[in-house]
Amino acid sequence: MSEVRVRFAPSPTGFFHIGSARTALFNWLYAKHTGGQFILRVEDTDKERNTEEALQVLIEGMQWLGLDWDEGPGKGGQFGPYFQSQRSAVYEEYLNLLKSKNRVYEKEGALWFRLEGERYIEYDDFKKAEVEKVKNTPVVIDDAIRGRVERTEERDFVIVRSNGEPVFHFVNVVDDISMNITHVIRGEDHLSNTSKHVELFKAFGVKPPIFAHIPLILKESGPGKMSKRDKGALIEEYQKRGFVSDAVCNYICLLGWNPKDDQEKMSIQTIIERFDFDGINKGNARFDEQKLAALNSEYLKELSIETLTQLALPELEEAGCVTDQTDREYLHSVLRLVQPKIKSLDTLADYVGYFFQERYEEDAKALARIQKNGDAKNLLLEIMEVFEAQEAYTSEQLEETLTQIASKHQRKLFAYFPIIRFAISGRSGGPDLLPLLAVMGRDRVLSRLRAFLENTSI
Ligand code: GLU
User: Fold this and answer.
1) For the CA of 8, the nearest atom of ligand 1
2) CATH of domain 303-356
3) CATH (one of 1.10.287.40, 3.40.1190.10, 1.10.10.350, 3.30.413.10) for 364-455
4) In terms of CB atoms within 10 Å, which end of the chain has fewer, N or C?
5) In terms of C-beta density within 10 A (0-12 exposed, 13-18 middle, 19 or more buried), how is residue 96 classed?
6) Is the CB of 43 under 6 A from ligand 1?
7) Three-state SS for 254?
8) pLDDT tens across 402-442, in order?
9) Rounded to an integer, what is the distance from CA 250 to the centroid of its chain?
């Protein structure tokens, strides 16, 4: 086990944003890559927003993505508690430590952190007031992603509000110290806080961790970072829409990281092996829905039939295609048939609905094409007798039968395909016809062909 200890420190808001998920994922990957520990610490100091349900969304999202933590809620660990709301005693202790170093003073009920250095008064145009500033040397941050960043803190800042609540900067640093965090991997939006954090580390006499600030995720088009209102921004959405979690995970890794050779589809094991700060881009990443959809479709094609069924069931049940009564064998064979063709589970119910419903809509364009043919009904009548007499309905046997019928009537084999497909599905497209007939089976195919012949006006 290495010394590396990283943490994901979310403030639960009720959403699991793709940016947070990526921060969690990069921390997790770094821990796995280095053989270190991954800690989940809940920064739940905002009592209004940080509800139990909000936490649940986060935990479920992380579990769905497969991001297990070594220490944290539900796991425990020797550095707990892992909820900031339960760590008042720790903050008290560290506050006293700062006080003993004469780095805390009270002003207007709040507690302020005193910077070191010579003080002077300056007129602040914006606030229209005189403010006290400190002649201070710049804080140098050797960021593992951004490189050298310098920033000067020249004003004292509040660490405990007048209502007694400790401020983010203070608790964040105290927790990183008391939990022995070695690397802080977080969103670039925190880079501007880091000089405050480093000042606090210095005041405690502790060497700061290594910082790695990950660039932003921009929305699909236009400027600005992705917000929770943007399509595709929430992990729980992917969960609901039946995305393959490995695909989502793989895609999120590519938001700001790449393994230099532009490879995209990679197992999580491969990513763990190859993941390092070197591969994280300095520039912002842009969300690309199509790329995610393409990866998802590749993953869908590789799922075991059991997993595919599990993912597809909610969708199919909701659309009313599948019920408790649906034969599982049949369901499996339908899914196996369409698996190479499906792009997402969103559209699956529409794609396979007719397999399960004896009444299906006739596609108007497909019908028009059939009618244009003029001969379609004759074609069906030609095969009917033979199809009725035949027992075996494998793909090969059906092909043999149709080849014989075709040669008897001096037609091409494929002449029969569109009308058969239309009669049994109401469509002009779908999975390959002969395997489709084999999956539907003799009884279903015959009863559909008969019903079609009886009712059709073609
Ligand atoms: N609670 C902070 C956030 O959600 C954590 C910042 C950090 O990782 O240090 O942005």
Assistant:
1) 8
2) 1.10.8
3) 1.10.10.350
4) N
5) exposed
6) yes
7) coil
8) 999 999 999 999 999 999 999 999 999 999 999 999 999 99
9) 9
Task: Verify whether ligand 1 is closer than 6 Å to residue 194 (CB atom).
Answer: no
- At residue 318's C-alpha, the angle toward residues 314 and 322, to 5°, is 80
Per the document, the length of the chain is 458
Count Cβ atoms below 10 Å from residue 28 Cβ, excluding itself.
26
Confidence of residue 1 (pLDDT cuts 50, 70, 90): low
* pLDDT tens by residue, 256-281: 999 888 899 999 999 999 999 999 99
Among the atoms of ligand 1, which is closest to the Cα of residue 190? 6
Residue 190 Cβ contacting ligand 1 at under 6 Å: yes
Ligand 1 atom with least separation from CA of 189: 10
pLDDT band for position 373 (cuts 50, 70, 90): confident
CATH 1.10.10.350 intervals, the chain: 364-455
Is 296 near ligand 1, meaning CB less than 6 Å away?
no
Residue 307 CB neighbours (<10 A): 12
Query: Structurally, what CATH architecture does the domain formed by 1-101+168-302 represent?
Result: 3-Layer(aba) Sandwich (3.40)
